[in-house]
Structures are given as structure tokens and as C-alpha cells.
Amino acid sequence: KKNFEEQYGVKILENYGLTETFFISTNTTTKISEHSVGQILPSVQIQITEDDQILKNDKEGEIEIKSPFLAKKYLQNNDDTFKSLQNNDWFKTGDLGYVSENNEIFITGRKKDLIIRSGINISPLSIENILYTHPDIRECAVVGIPHKFQGEEIICVVSLKSENDFEIIKKELFELCDKELSTIKKPSKILSLSELP
Q1: Which is nearest to 21 in space by CA: 39, 46, 2?
Q2: Above 60 in pLDDT, residue 86?
Q3: In a 10 Å sphere around its CB, with 0-12 CB exposed, 13-18 middle and 19+ buried, how is residue 173 labelled?
Q4: Which of 23, 109, 150, 162 could form a disulfide with 96 if both were Cys (CB 3.0 to 4.6 A apart)?
């Protein structure tokens, strides 16, 4: 985004929405935090939940929406998804994120992509974003694999930009994870592939 703006001299304004919800938030020309998808629109309500509990600001969970623009039903589909919304219920987006004190939304991942380690929900994207700060990482993927006691174990697979020694880079990546991630989010293994499938 930054590179595009610098090269073309154009300010990119982001928004967030789903097919079913229309727009939920948008950036304006006013100052918006980096990585935010904008401020919640005035007619839209948002709550962040985990296990049906409403979370406070800055806590990550599933984004749920109430909006006057919500779709009434799916075309040629008898799906019951929208029936409960006639009773003014919240629409579960399946997206993970949080809302800041100044009403900005930050998207952190998808609920179905979660890794569940020792009963804790972990967004792979939050770990991948840390790995991408290392200058030698071209591409990475964080996945959960079955673990006998923890439920899932966190594995990182990386593709490198350079021909630098992977063992050195791996050590640097573990150090980066130690510095930037909580213990529960730290990967057990880091593997290298020439390119990701």
C-alpha cells in the first residue's frame, strides 16, 4: 500500500464490508491508524465476541454486525442464516478482529482459520505478520497440526528471498517470535520450502 501511494501519488482509502452487510467501515481523508480498515459507519453497530461473550475494546474476537443494510436472504437458497435476524439478532461475520478506543476496526484473520492450542484460539495471520517483518521472508504460512496434549501445534513454513543460510535465518525467526509473541503463540517448528504450494 505504501509503495503504491509513493509511486503514484494517490492516497488509498480502505473499507470493510461483506456481501451480506454492505459497508461496515471506511477510511476517510482524516488520519486513520496503520492497518485499520477505517471507522465504523454511523448507522452500523459492531460487537466483538468470543464464546458468545462480548469483549471490551482492543480485545480480539469474532466481528458481529447489526446494520440497516443487511441482506434479507440468499437468492434461490432456503438457508436459515438470516431467519434469526428478523428478531434483531447479530450477524456473525466469521472475521476476527478488534475495535479500538477511537472506533476503528482492525481485521486479524478468519475464525475458520484459527489454530486451537491448549484451548486458546490463535490467529495464524497474527504470527505471519510478525514473520513478514524479517527481511529474508518472501512468503510464509502458519498452520496447526495435531498434537497429543495441546490439541494443535504451531508450525511455520517459510520461503526465503535470499540464498542466506536457513539455519541462521531460522534462529533469527525464533528470536523474533520470542520478542514479539506471547508464549502460547510461539511456533514449535519453522520449516523452509523453495516456494509455497
Answers
A1: 46
A2: no
A3: buried
A4: 109
